[in-house]
């Protein structure tokens, strides 16, 4: 195992542990806050959808500044800073207070911009054209194992319709501890190995192939940060990035749906039975199963196939799988399921197995889209990885913030209708940009492999 592969594995495991805590908390937040409101007889009025909307709104805003921060500190410091923000957010649930929750939501939004933009640059620095798809799939498969342990734990704890203070304390303690362990793993991330600048050039001798990239010219931190901010704006205004924003927006909308709306909706349908709250955790596990399968199949095992055909067959597969999920959810759950406990039913008698199948298909389709977006960005924007991934997360988080905002008022059917329209736009945008990029690469002769040229030194 070479150093770059080990870096990707450590990055994946660290993210998996931190997001075991955070994604589990996101899945159960509305259920948790609803139980706190019951215990306090309405004195506690915080809303999970508002909290999540704040997170993604701040996330979107800070994505413009994250490349500047990373240009000064490097990706590893950004990743660690972001991870610490996640730990503080989870720990804040020990002291349920509306102002504290919303303040910590702002903090974790800042941390999210840093950790995800840093992740994008670090993953790209440790990949090349041949390994980018494999590394993206490896990261996604390991990362999404975070859905298993946390949600299984929650499903075993939440065995009754009402969740008491003792159960909540156990959950918060375990999730906070897991996130802290994740930070420990991220602390051992190593510097990115320098890449060769002339390794693939024709006529270059073996001795010359060992030449390393020269150290970049050092600039003042503020100048470096400003340059990174300007570069991000310029990149966003390019035609490829503007078109890809439609794909990014869809991933943000479906992220909102599967992470904050769907699992809680299952737990609110009384016809699911007295143990319906445990289905919130089982749904998260189902999403994780789909994510890991998608990451493994389309990221790791099919990396050679995607290298020849591109990512569009995988994205089309994600389209078909998500359409099946939307139809099954439309039939199985009532329109008012996202808002709280309901006696209503959908167009068929509520079925727990069908609900869990919906969870698996949502996760599988999400993996199809995300692994290919990561791969495409890592190849197309190898030398602009930080702003490229920041813009991806910007569009995704803006869509997520808007979606969480209207989730407090919009019924399940309206949310599914929005997803139905945007999935076709997002799929078409991805296929068009990938085809355009592939055609451009075929028409332009190259003497060197651009993945071997890196504008960063790998130091942080």
UniProtKB/TrEMBL annotation:
The chain crosses the membrane at residues 7-28, 48-65, 77-95, 101-118, 139-158, 170-189, 235-259, 279-302, 314-334, 412-433. InterPro entries: Ion_channel_UNC-93, MFS_trans_sf, UNC-93-like_regulator. It is found in: Membrane. It is a multi-pass membrane protein. Residues 440-449 have a biased composition (Basic and acidic residues). Residues 440-460 are annotated as: Disordered. One of its GO terms (cellular component) is membrane. Keywords: Glycoprotein, Membrane, Transmembrane, Transmembrane helix. Pfam families: UNC-93. The keyword Transmembrane helix applies. The keyword Membrane applies. Belongs to the unc-93 family. This is UNC93-like protein MFSD11. It comes from Temnothorax curvispinosus.
